[in-house]
Specification:
This is Ankyrin. Pfam families: Ank. With 306 residues, the chain is mainly alpha-helical. Helix content is 54%, strand content 0%. Helix 1 packs antiparallel against helix 2, helix 1 packs parallel to helix 3 and helix 3 runs antiparallel to helix 4.
Length: 306
């Protein structure tokens, strides 16, 4: 094990020194002995050359079978982006450790996204359709998939870039992505801006989506409830999520909300407020969100000692 660590360090040092001859020697001698490990060392050397900006080593390794894999590095400096994009590497390559393209990886960086799109990044190239919702990873690739990735990670400006280059809002479920993977601890203002932008583009935060034919359709609010994410439930309610649109069933309340007193009480209070002030509810949700004869949700009994 110590030998492998020493060899890895020696390869890194050769790249740092720009010593291609030494690097080739280290990789060739390891290749004859270690097989799969040698291939990983070659890929690590390629990515380290990209980070330090050594064009000759990067292009040599790329032409000799090394694979670009962003998940082997922690960050990518600006000069490295230029080297990567100008190297002739196919930017629509699916990276082995993740099954994703470079566009998917750098969706939060507007400059990189712009550069990739200008150079022909394919919005359908990612092989993990709907992988942001792991339960539904077998749904076919569609240009809307990148919309959902951007919804919980990117900015409105990046969203507009994607749409301008062919990403489709129709049939996408960005609010479900926000509900399941949005990180409110990483700055709620960013998610707030994206949700408002999507609503301005005509997306409905109360849209229920059926991921599989045999499954019930869920709203983004119900998705957050299933995840028992009370902060996301609050966030969605603040942005117009209507608990009566999806019709939270008694079964859902018992199975999911029952043990969570705080979450149940929040939804009950929200519903009471809506019922006591229908004008306010109509202002929030429009006439379509106001049932003619609203029925109370049958919540389970709660143990206040929990």
């Amino acid at each position: 094990m110590a030998f492998l660590k020493d060899r890895k360090l020696a390869i890194k040092q050769a790249v740092d020194a720009g010593d291609l001859g030494r690097l080739i020697f280290l990789l060739e001698t390891e290749k004859t002995t270690w097989g799969k490990t040698a291939r990983k060392r070659r890929d690590e050397a390629l990515m380290h050359a990209l980070v330090v900006g050594d064009e000759s080593i990067f292009k040599y390794l790329l032409s000799h079978g090394a694979v670009v894999d962003m998940y082997l590095i922690d960050f990518l400096p600006g000069h490295s982006v230029d080297l990567l994009l100008d190297s002739g590497w196919d930017i629509n390559t699916v990276m082995p450790s993740s099954g994703h393209t470079v566009l998917w990886v750098f969706i939060q960086n507007e400059d990189i996204v712009q550069g990739l799109l200008d150079r022909g990044a394919d919005l359908q190239a990612d092989s993990h359709a709907k992988s942001l919702l792991p339960t539904y990873s077998q749904i076919p690739v569609d240009p809307s998939d990148i919309i959902e990735r951007a919804a919980y990670l990117a900015t409105p400006a990046i969203m507009d870039l994607l749409i301008a280059h062919g990403a489709r809002l129709e049939n996408s479920v960005p609010f479900h992505a926000v509900a399941e993977l949005g990180d409110l601890n990483d700055g709620p203002a960013k998610l707030h801006a994206m949700v408002e932008h999507l609503q301005a583009l005509g997306m409905d935060i109360n849209n229920a989506h059926q991921f599989y034919p045999d499954d019930e359709a869920l709203t983004p609010l119900e998705t957050a409830i299933y995840d028992d994410n009370i902060e996301m439930v609050k966030f969605l309610l603040e942005h117009g999520a209507n608990p009566m649109t999806g019709g939270l069933s008694s079964d859902l309340a018992r199975e999911v909300l029952g043990p969570d007193v705080a979450l149940v009480e929040m939804l009950e209070a929200f519903e009471r407020s809506c019922r006591q002030n229908p004008e306010a509810m109509q202002e929030l949700f429009g006439t379509e969100g106001l049932p003619d004869q609203p029925q109370p949700i049958a919540f389970a009994e709660h143990d206040e000692s929990r």
